[in-house]
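Below is just one:
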Amino acid sequence: MLCALLLMLVNLLIVAKLFGVEYSAYNGSIEGTFIAIPRIMAKYPGQWQWWPFWNGGLPFEDVYLPFAHWLVAGFSLLTRLSAARSFHIVTAAIYAGSAPAVFWMALELSRRLTASLIAALAYSCVSVSALLVPAIGVDAGGALNLRRLQVLVVYGEAPHTVALALLPVAVVCFSRALTTRQVKWQLLAGGMGACVVLSNAFGMVMLPVALVCWLMAFPLRPWWRAPLTVAAIGVLTYCWISPWFSPSMMRAIHANAATTGGDFRYTERTWIALVLVGAGFVLLWVAMRLFRASPHLRFFVLLGFVPAAIVVTGYLWKTAIIPQPHRYQLEMDLALPIAMVFAGASILDRVPARVRAAVAAVVIGGLGFQTVHSVLYARDLIRPVEPSRLSEYQIAKWLDRHRPGERAFISGSGTFLYNAFTDNPQLTGGHDQHTVNTFIPIVSYTIYSGMNAGDRDAEYSIFWLKAFGAHLISVPGAGSTDAYKRIVHPDKFDGVLRLLWRSGDGSIYEVPARSGSLAHVIPASAIVKRTPIHGLDTAPVEAYVAALDDPTYPPATFRWKGMSEAEIEATLSPGQAIGVQVTYERGWEAWANGKAQRVFGDAIGQMVIEPDCLGPCQVWLRYTGGWEHRATRALSLAAMLVGIALGWRGRGRLLRAERDPSHPASAG
């Protein structure tokens, strides 16, 4: 306990300044989205079906894995602090608890107190990735700087930080579940595994990697029992969390993973690298068995090898054996120091006690220096900002006051911060790997780059803004505080679109539209039936956009009635439909005059309703999630009932064992 308290104190000293931050000075960080999500969750409790704020709308579970956001939203509701302040307090507290979790895992598996403490201290103040990979050290501002703190503060990797803090605890719970075979540890293993998976995709990858390493390092008899137990816990846990990690979310992540943050599609070079890494893993395991390495050392070395191999092949060989390999540097910084410390300890076991003491003194002295350096580095790194100084804030607040409820195309870093300040929807926003309407990134790229558009750059941009119901666009100029300034030709709208606001070289333009509604009466012939090949292929959508501007078609009104319901009023004639500029997903249902109506998606991913009413027509829309939501909720309820039954049975076994020491359960 004293060691854990010492580690907590060291990390609190490092991260202390973060507890007082509301908005960070690093406006290019994705943390703005991680503030927006719990802010809106706390504001609209119980309406977590549909998310209308990003990418034309998407199912709520596709916004992001929710565990970290539940913590922040809950803390905000309990303390009545802002979502931004709650986010930094919760994140800082979890960061400080990460090293004690690493210490607990190391001690649990090795039973070596000193080595476990040194390993956790090394994790607290040393970034092995920055020391071993020059590019990471350069980006961190120096090889001695604490990379995991920089990634959290500068890049906003809060859910990743949460997953890293929970991963060692999950490993301990699984270890006890497999070695004691007690139901309480099996249920705890499932619960902690669920928390890791629902925190971040990288934790989701590393948890099964860690379990495979454990099974290879700690063989139990009979050999099949432990893998079968892990599989059973995994299946039951997935059923429990399936409403928040649904099959549709898996499809979205799979569809976007290969092109989010780079080109990670598999090539022949990828397969060669994957085979080499796999062979290296197996050879390492065989070598440690031949040299009779202790089980805990096998586990730590195998666990350290995997993220290190992912990162090194990504940086040095320029080959990704898994999407976004550079982001596994945080897992490398967690696992590799433990492996190095315990490998060193196994060598020192063979030398005289005086040599061991001298080496330990040198190592602890070096870690002490690194701790002081990390504290000073953190004080300089963590910097708050008054949000009113940011053009991203000014744009959000101006639109909130003057164009409430209207969808806008928000450019650059403003996409991250926009919904931290307003409930207005934006056409893009959020996280690319969770995008449901995969044509919206093509639209975004066309507007940003203007590639091959020539002197029709503005024309193509306006066309797609109209097609997707964005009535406004923000354009950061050279003097804006925007961190990215992604629009290559920021002046292309000057003299073409009406300028509504300009300040600090940031501008807001109005996109002309006959109606500000997201619903439009269109002829059935204008429904988009072919997906464009690229952003300059406008032909399949031209009839649809022309119908939006055609005054011969009556207007339609669209009003949100909460986050997941809407009301449309329109006057329809034969051969007409209602085009709704909201992303279509199975689970949208429509009614008119008490009867269900046909709802489907067009070729650019937006909703079309074909009501069977003529003349004045009132249509109610509601997103229910359809059969998938019903199925996953049924699975979750069934899993909870099974867990309760197993827990009750396990409790009964323990009570019988206490009454009868000869009972078999007393041995567990």
Q: What stands out?
A: The first strand starts at residue 50 and ends at 51. The longest helix spans residues 626-659.
